Amino acid sequence: MYDEILFPTDGSEASKQTFPHAVSQARAFDARIHALYVVNTTYAGVGAGGSKNVATLRDEGEAIVAKFERELRDEAIEVVSQIEEGDPFTKITAYADEVADMIVMGTRGRSGIEKYLLGSVTEKVVRTADVPVLTVRTPE
User: Fold this and answer.
1) Which DSSP string corresponds to 74-99?
2) What are the domain boundaries of the chain?
3) Which residues contact 2 (CB under 8 A, 6 or more apart)?
């Protein structure tokens, strides 16, 4: 039923807690996992005048997906790693449209005015994805 599972990760604690659920789904369906890290270039702190440059964030992303990739290979699960740059929501949904049968991602528990004004990446993905999205509630 599911051959290609997208596991978007930012290396956060939420991603780490979601990882076993992605592994479980991959095992249940004998599926391949796509570990996707999106370098978020939409914030003012990124880029020419920002405190972090895109190359640094890309390096961090590569280290994060490499860690998950090693763990998946240790679990004998086929994995594809990908680094993208841009708006995380846009990149996740575009990648899913191309390759995924399912998305497995964590929630962050954003609340109050921040959630009202910004929404969350997970919430936007759930509302717009064309494939099933398994969300894992994780602590704030």
Assistant:
1) HTT--EEEEEEEE-HHHHHHHHHHHH
2) 4-136
3) 25, 29, 31, 101, 102, 132
- The pTM for the full model equals 0.87
- Chain mean pLDDT for the chain: 87
* Pairing of the two strands 102-106 and 79-86: unpaired
Q: What are the backbone dihedrals phi and psi of residue 18, each rounded to the nearest 5 degrees, phi first?
A: -85, -30
pLDDT tens-digit map of 14-72: 889 999 999 999 999 999 999 999 998 886 555 555 556 888 889 999 999 999 999 99
Using the 8-state DSSP alphabet, how is residue 32 labeled? Answer: E
Overall fold of domain 4-136: Rossmann fold (3.40.50)
Which residue bears the tokens 């991959």? Answer: 26
Q: Residue type for 8, please?
A: P
